[in-house]
Design brief:
Elements: H1 3-11, H2 17-31, H3 42-57, H4 64-89, H5 103-108, H6 116-126, H7 133-151, H8 158-178, H9 186-216, H10 218-223, E1 228-230, E2 237-241, E3 245-247, E4 253-254, H11 256-270, E5 278-280, E6 291-297, E7 300-308, E8 314-319, E9 326-328
Antiparallel strand pairs: 1-2, 2-3, 3-4, 5-6, 6-7, 7-8, 8-9
Helix pairs in contact: 3-4, 3-9, 4-6, 4-7, 4-8, 7-8, 8-9
């Protein structure tokens, strides 16, 4: 036995069980691994949510629970990835009040961050990030679904939810690749791209599902193409406005008044702004506020019309000769009748002799 070994043996007390137990415990603490650390930086966190969504929707028939968590995780992925891009512009921008932002609060996470709507607005104004109207609508619908699900419970058509999810997933995949990737470290991006490949494969299967289903409906849709519009629930060109309103893709049945209101709101948000939208009483059935435009039908997606979802009366679109605002081409009118000031062709009363 060496001197060192001897000294070590002299300093131990094998007969003392208390000393043995304390030594063993100390050794265990140094050798035993600690609790797992949570290490999910924002972008990696967002992509992890996306892979979760694909896993939840990849089943042949996702359960109600799968759909619930798919909505929650997809909304979380959207929020995290959009804010990661905003943070790349400047870390203070993700605060509700950027002027009150401090590094200490940012590092500790002790702050209230901006909403999804505020994030999108700041990305558009400060980072020159472009969003197509259909993507803005899809994100807005997703946020509403998430809020209903979280606070009130959500009863919705499973096919509609899957259709909406596919639209948001398509957007996020392009957003991450074409914009966000330019602000990520190359090594980190290579690791995340492996995870994204799973998202791409899963989205391909979802896209195939949508394509297959729409192909199955092709003949049914072709027969009533003049009455087919885009469904406000699943966003497929499969809503049949004929003797009521129902979607052939997701089977959602629509109340005519609610359907008209949805289309009018869509027109205000997407088409050309408030000056290019129209809502009035139907000139055929006189249903209140039911005659709206512009509405696009499957048979002519590039030709806006005015339509009543109560009686299916439609009219072509004419442009006012004074203000160029569209109005229903009914009769021989050449002006919309809402121009201010009135047309010089219309005599105005004179005061005095």
């Amino acid at each position: 036995m060496t001197d060192t070994e001897h000294l070590a043996s002299d300093t131990t007390h094998p007969a003392d069980p208390g000393v043995d137990a304390a030594a063993t415990e100390a050794t265990d603490r140094t050798q035993r691994p600690g609790p797992p650390q949570v290490d999910f930086p924002p972008v990696r966190n967002g992509i992890d949510y996306l892979t979760s969504v694909i896993e939840l929707l990849d089943a042949t028939q996702p359960s109600a629970r799968d759909l619930k968590y798919a909505v929650l995780h997809l909304q979380a992925a959207t929020e995290v990835l959009l804010k990661a891009r905003l943070q790349a512009e400047h870390w203070s921008l993700i605060f509700t009040e950027p002027l009150n932002a401090t590094r200490e609060k940012f590092t500790s996470g002790d702050f209230v961050s901006c909403t999804v709507e505020e994030t999108i607005d700041r990305l558009q104004q400060l980072a020159d990030v472009r969003f197509e109207p259909k993507h803005l609508r899809a994100i807005k619908n997703l946020t509403q679904d998430r809020n209903k699900l979280q606070h009130y419970g959500l009863t919705h058509n499973a096919l509609a939810i899957e259709g909406r999810a596919a639209e948001v997933l398509h957007f996020l995949l392009d957003f991450v690749h074409l914009d966000l990737s330019r602000h990520i470290d190359r090594e980190e991006w290579e690791r995340m791209d492996i995870k994204l490949s799973m998202v791409r494969r899963g989205l391909g299967r979802m896209g195939k599902f949508v394509t297959t289903r729409m192909n199955d409906l092709r003949d049914e849709i072709a027969e009533v193409a003049d009455h087919i519009v885009q469904c406000p629930d699943c966003d497929q060109w499969a809503a049949i406005v004929l003797h009521g309103s129902r979607c052939a893709f997701c089977h959602q049945v629509h109340d005519p008044a609610a359907f008209a209101a949805s289309w009018y709101q869509r027109a205000r948000e997407e088409i050309q702004g408030k000056d290019w939208t129209y809502q009035n009483d139907c000139p055929d059935c006189w249903a209140e506020r039911a005659f709206i435009g512009p509405v696009f039908f499957e048979s002519a997606r590039d030709q806006p019309r005015f339509a009543c979802f109560h009686c299916q009366f439609t009219a072509a679109t004419a442009l006012c000769t004074r203000c160029a605002r569209p109005f229903p081409a009914i009769g021989s009118r050449s002006e919309c009748g809402t121009c201010m000031p009135p047309s010089p062709a219309v005599p105005t009363p004179r005061s005095g002799p």
